[in-house]
Each structure stands twice: as C-alpha cells, then as structure tokens.
C-alpha cells in the first residue's frame, strides 16, 4: 500500500475536476509534523497560479471534489493554500492488517517491470578491494535488492577493471614468480604482487621490455598471454567473491562484465565515430570534441577515444558498454554507482552515445554518485602510515569490535552463537554506517558511532528486532499465526501503525533514486516508535484478549517490516543478542 500515491491520485482527480490543467502536480508529501495531519498536498498554490486563481479558493474547490470517504477523517486548508489530510484510524488499522496477512507486506510490485542494469562494485584486477570500493558495492547492492523485490528484471554488472596496459607487467611478473617458485603463486596478497610487479617494471629494463611485448601479444590474442591473464583475473575474482559473500552482497562470479568484454567492439566504435564525423584526428590521437564542455581556454573539450599508440581509453570502453547494454541486453534503465569524480566522464560518454545515435532518449541513464569515506581527521580514510585500507582488514577489525560489544551486552552467550551474532552485527554496522548517510556527500568513518546500541545504528535496529521476537517467545506464540485484528486506540499505537504504512514510500526512494539512507531513517523511526509503543502499551499484560491480539499483531508487523528492510539493505537479522 502506497498511501502517498493513493492520495496523489485522489487530489489530482479533484484538481482536474476543479478545472486545473492536467500537467499540474498535487505534490503530496508526508507531513513533517503531526499537527499538519498525516499528509499534505503542497501543489495547490502552483496550480492556482497557472489558472489565475486565488490558492485558497482553489483549495476549497479541490476539497469539494475530493472523495476520501473511509480514508481520511479530516481535510483542512492551511496557510496560503496547503491541504492537510488526517487519516482515519480504522482505515489505517485495516491497511496494517492487510500488510500483515498479504504476501510481501502488501507492497505493490511494479506493473511495468523494467530491465535495469546496475553497474556497481567494479574493483580492479590484481588489486585487493579497498574501502574505496565499499560504497559502490553496498549502495549498489541495496538498490539491486530493492528493484528485484519490486519485480524488476535486474542485471548486476560488475564492470571490473580487467584490461589495460598494466597487464603486460603483471603477466611478466607472474611468469617470473611461477618460474622461481613453481608451487606458490604469491598472488594471495594481491597488493604486494602488484607493487612488486611495478617495482620490477620501473627498475629492470629487460623486464620492462618483456612487459611491453606482452601487452602487444595479449592484445593480439596470443594464447599464452591470454592464459596468464585469465589466471590473474580468476584469482582476483575468487578473492572478491569471497569478500562479497562475507559482506552479504549478492554479486557472484557470473555477474562479472569486465572491461575486457567490450574489447572486440572498440575498433568498430572508433571507426564509426570517425565516419559519423564525431571523432577527428588530433596529434595522431582520435578525439571527440564536445561543444557542451569547454576547456579552460573556452574551447570545446576533447574526449580522447584512441591514443596515438593505438591504445583505447576508459571512455571508449564505456561507450562500447552502453551500446552492448542497450542492443544486447535490452536495458530500459542503467544505474552507475561510482564516486562523484567520475560524473563528467559518464556524462560525456552518454552525450557521445546519444550524438552517435547508439541509444535512444528513452533509455534512462543515471549516475548514482557518492562522496568519499573520510577518517575522523576529515581526510581520506587511510591507515596510519597513509596506505589505503583493505576491505578485509576493515571487516576483521569490525568483527573484533563487535565481539567486545556483544560480549558486554550478553556475557552468557555460548561462544559459537556469540560469533555468529558478532559476524552479523559487524557487517551490519559497517554497511549501515554507510547506507544511512546521504550518499551524495562525504562521510566520516567512526567505529564508535557505528558499533553502538544507541542512535541510528545497525546494532540498535538489530536489537529492536530481537526484542519483538522475544515477546513472541515469551508468549509462546507463532508470529505467523496470529488471530484477531488491529485496532488503534492509543496514540502510540496509531503513530507506529501510520508509520508502518509508509514502508512502500521508503522503498520507492531506494528504487527511484538509489537513496538507501531514506529507508534507513525510516527503519530507525519504526524501531523508536515501537519502543515508545512498547513502553506505553502493555502487550502481554493488555486489558483484554482483543487488545492483546491487536498489539501482538502490530508487533508482528513491526518485526516483519524490519526484516524486509534489513533484507533490502543486505543486513542480517539475528534472533537473539
Ligand atoms: N573500475 C572503476 C574504478 O575502480 C569503476 C568502474 C565503474 N563503471 C563504469 N562503467 N565506468 O574506478
């Protein structure tokens, strides 16, 4: 049930009936304060302006055409022409009962499934995943889970950096390591492997020569080089997949669509852009000049698509990728999860693809960008010695800290259970700390804030969930088999139920804009509203059996909502803490 869109439709109908043009917007929003009702329609003023009417007068006419029988108790005009809507508590109670008894909590799945490709994670081969890949991986995955829940056909695209001139050096070094130490690959530590390869390349001219030779051979499809390259990719990806599993991220090996996938298309793309007159030669390189972007001298900016030495660039690959995604995968929508520094790159790629006629305007292209992870000092998050922090090291530390936290709360937990819970809490805490911040800005990574039972944290939410479950354990009742019906007498009951009925609206902000922090804030609200309901409204000691069942049902819906919310964020719910 999406109350916001139900009310939007109703107000739109009333607006049209009152003579407003069909392109106006009812602008129905959740009210910020209870004194303004549950929802507010803010679009009357703009519509009145279009019609040359007094806003309050239009508001009156809209209300006279508005039929919210059973749905709302009171509809009033406020200020210059806002319409405040107060929902009927019996109707809200009925919606809550429906949510409890209907598949997927009565959330409307889409009637128009789209093919949505989500381009996320995208680590680089022969490098270990570091904190820089964390945001893309987990925000992207939350969107993937949400879109799938809503019934879209989602393609996970892991645009792994698995191609480029660095592979000459990596192959030459892998060969050297294999020759010297046949049994051991020395690739388990990818960071040191990469660094050692680079050192040899920089310091040993014979090695460098061989490396350059291997680049050419690899690009020419030489079987030996391809075989060595495959080894590097496989080892990296098997390590990454282990990290995804640990992170409870749904990416698997089959979702790898690395840069190499588009290799065979690149020459054709450059040739075609030249023939279309979009790309020209400049200093031996091939460049697309874009009037839409000016360099610092005020001249059209050039995007290089082929270097003088024949090599292709990151942009060329992304142009090919978009063609592939549209023509082969039939995407309706493509979402890119990369940091904000890649925004111009993507916009230029899209512009070139449009100009060349590779993709239609109807293809939805969105860059869901994000800021950086900062340390407490406000600088990019690094180790003390200034190195990038490996993701696995970060997760190890999270686990250590979570063990301390959970042991402190519940010292009697058996060791295996403690570990299981701490694992879920540690991963949950790291992910939630990120997901709960507006992705568009930088955020400060702070252990103490994320691994706490107070505040908007994963442990707080996970604990709230266990509290509801323990209620059912105490009552010896099955949460899935409750009789009775919800009735909302107490104001705390109403507040909780009304917010529970906004779940779909929170989910939509993830599906539409990739903004999981709105879902996080919502779940946090639910947990705090449940807490004050629980303090004010005795459940097992309710006055009557009817009231007890009603409150149990409300508690059950709370638990189920939290569980589905966790599932969308990729956070594990635990039964006990
Ligand atoms: N591998 C790139 C990086 O580490 C991110 C790729 C993002 N996706 C894309 N289609 N360009 O920065």
UniProtKB/TrEMBL annotation:
Entry keyword annotation includes Protein biosynthesis: yes
EC number: 6.1.1.19
Residue positions of motif 'HIGH' region: 123-133
Organism (species): Zophobihabitans entericus
Matching Gene3D superfamilies: Arginyl tRNA synthetase N-terminal domain, HUPs, Isoleucyl-tRNA Synthetase, Domain 1
Record's subcellular location: Cytoplasm
Taxonomic path: Bacteria, Pseudomonadati, Pseudomonadota, Gammaproteobacteria, Orbales
Principal location: cytoplasm
Domain spans labelled DALR anticodon binding: 461-577
SMART domains: Arg_tRNA_synt_N, DALR_1
Gene behind this protein: argS
Complex formation: Monomer.
Domain Arginyl tRNA synthetase N-terminal: residue ranges: 1-87
Name listed for the protein in its UniProt record: Arginine--tRNA ligase
GO biological process, one term: arginyl-tRNA aminoacylation
